[in-house]
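Two proteins, back to back. First:
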Amino acid sequence: MTTASLLKRLQALDTNTVSDALDFLGLPGATYGLRPLWDCPKVVGLASTIQLGPKTDAKPTVHLISPVIAEVESDDRVLVISGGVDGISCWGDILANAAVAKKVRGSVIDGLSRDIEGSESIGYPVYGKGVTMISARNRVIQTGSGEPVVMAGVTVAQDDFVIADRCGAVFVPAARIEEVLDLGERIARRQDGMVQAVRAGRSVADVMHDKEFEAINTKASQ
């Protein structure tokens, strides 16, 4: 199956459903605390990983994240940025404009953003821990890219799948994406049926019984 078709299937789900699929499969991936920093749309794409860290010397450096944006060559990338420092920005509107020019789909930051109105004004999705006005310049640097990073306790590799919406951000290992999608689609169908059953008057205690949820993870629920 092509990457484009996998991303289309992931786009049709939400983070809650993908999180449930990961739970059934015993996989990490769901995070807590990485939320939309404006009322931005869902983001689905492939991870371009970036590692940040505190600046420890006075030597001038290339601005963090800009080299990764400059190298983007496809329209399916999501910047996955780890290593933010408390109180310090690691994203801003100039980077957002550069990302839009390269057709990057959005940024998920284990840290803070400044200039959030700038990202919002051009429709660029940003998910992270919060906002600040304090610049990263001479405080935070990029220490690596394209290698595994840790996002809110979850390890994310280059080219893993990313989905982020109003409930937060979830990362799916590339090697398991088809399995997660197959199960996620079964979960979505089953839960839609449960909603319809409640609306039709069936007892919510019966509809939400543990056995009903466990049935989702069986072929019979397809």
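And the second protein:
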Amino acid sequence: MLACSFGTVHGIYKGDPRLNFDVLRKIRQLSQTPLVMHGGAGVSDADYAKAIDAGIRKINYYTYGVKYAGEAVEGLVREKDGETVYWHDMTTTAYERMLANFTHVIQVFANGARPLA
């Protein structure tokens, strides 16, 4: 597998990612090897599908999953408005949000997947 640079980065983006699919397709054509997307945070579902079409076969995805989990815990704390928030409630809330997010991206990745040419 080859990790290549075509506009993604690890972590939270300050703006919208600008992916260069032409570069990605050219790398795939020249290398004839499965490609890795390093950093999938902030990439749209449509752009994931385009990247998979262009040869991406492994996507490193973590940051937004835990970002959404943290936001869910923040919402729980706000909802409790000064009441004690117990660890098990925070971890359950975080887990449920991460499960929903990761389930969604796995479905996006699977639906975008096509055999390598």
